[in-house]
Amino acid sequence: MKPLVLIACIYFAPNLFAQIDTNCISKRWIAVKNDVHNRDLFKEWRTAETDLLYVIRELTNENQLEIYNENRGYYNSTNWYPIPYVKHHIDSSTMDTLYSEFKSEYFEFIVQSDTPLTDEYGDPKVVTYPDGTQSYVYPPPRVYQLLTHKLLEIRIKEELLLDSITNQRNFVATGISFYYGDEQKGRELFWVNLQELYNAIDDKKKYKWYKMLTERRYSGFQYMQVPCSDNLIRY
Length: 235
Description:
Layout: H1 2-18, E1 25-33, H2 39-42, H3 52-61, E2 68-72, E3 78-82, E4 89-90, E5 97-98, E6 108-111, E7 126-128, E8 134-136, E9 142-145, E10 153-162, E11 169-180, E12 187-193, H4 194-200, H5 208-214, E13 221-227
Antiparallel strand pairs: 1-10, 1-13, 2-3, 4-5, 6-9, 7-8, 10-11, 11-12
């Protein structure tokens, strides 16, 4: 019986190790640069209304779409949290920007002068409120809208999902974020669930970026991944 036991062990051992695919990736994050290869993502020039970031902003303003923060959770996993988006509010009497707890410059940024206007005598203009408090009057702030072509890069999250038609597992773009600034001082603005975006838009064919995202025609480099064997992020 000893030779039989030895043969059985040799036979089953390869099958045991074959179950572990160390090359399998369940999720990956792609950094897509603003270059000629990704033109249809960044430079949608037919109308401003078809710009990717503009469309997301309008849907967010109409409460038809959520924007998210991506934070690291336990065991270095990623979690998304909805951002309570609040638009800028400007005091009409002083032209000063009013800040709120949840205010953040996700779709626009404001350049506010810190030098008040002056009257005919060269003194700072002052407005007096009904409660007796006073404030300086400033020049109207400049509001700059962020459009996709002004971004440094777009970041795309892909997941390995089962195709119900082909019964094969393929990578699908499931999330997108926007990176503004330069290499040294840039920042990630927010994330959007792509399926939620697709569900919220009409006439999808008029957007070049829709076809590019659904067909994964963009090019970039992978900067983060999660293997199939666990839920730990690898860089």
